[in-house]
Design brief:
The chain is an alpha/beta fold. The chain is built from nine helices and eight strands. The chain has one domain: Rossmann fold. The chain has a six-stranded parallel beta sheet, with helices on both faces. The structure holds adenosine-5'-triphosphate and magnesium ion.
Length: 225
Amino acid sequence: MSATFITATGTNIGKTFVAAGLIRHLRSVARPVNALKPVVTGFQPENAAASDPGVLLAALERPITPLEIERIAPWRFSAPVSPDLAARLENRTVDFEALLAFSRKSIETSAGTLLIEGIGGVMVPLDDTRTVLHWIVALNIPVVLVTGSYLGSLSHTLTSLDALRRRDIAIKALVVNETPDSTVPIADTMDTLNRFADQVPVLGLPRLPSVVAEHLTFVDLAALL
Ligand SMILES: Nc1ncnc2c1ncn2[C@@H]1O[C@H](COP(=O)(O)OP(=O)(O)OP(=O)(O)O)[C@@H](O)[C@H]1O
Ligand SMILES: [Mg+2]
């Protein structure tokens, strides 16, 4: 089985959209796939279908029930802030060792491809001392880095790539997800990132009306997993 961590330069960049597209594509070609969103903030049970675990479950064609949500997203917090703060507001913590154990068990037991969606960007704090990067390093699995085409994304992207490379994390692909109403054409962002990406494939994803499983970017990305 192969596991891939889906991370990004920040929040709201397109991790769930890319993961859902990949899931739908993999399922359409009968490749087994599972997905996790272990830590989620801003979670409202009454709006579960719109949450990240809800979107992933829909792509997996599994029911969006409390049990299914618990199975893929055990650490849920209601405040729409970073996990360390969201947990503190509920007098809880994200138990890092338990998070690793949960992730590793899923990696061992999932058939086919497992996608683990992180939270926010590469270095969002999970607790007082650890960030998402510690989680990726501990799991030692490859990543897909999702970024945008907004003005400023170049520095965010190169900083994220550098942080991952310094820890010897394999980067399977860099997905440049088109930012709506950006002053920068996505093609220019991709040209520049291609010059800095070294061997990492750079894939562009335009704005789509919905998660279209057969879009070429999802096909290309699936071939890299
Ligand atoms: N290429 C795209 N075409 C159309 N809509 C998109 C695209 N990429 C992302 N979106 C939409 O933009 C919003 C943010 O994307 P998404 O939820 O995937 O980001 P995220 O990185 O997973 O955010 P979070 O940090 O909250 O997990 C969502 O409403 C999503 O459906
Ligand atoms: Mg998401």
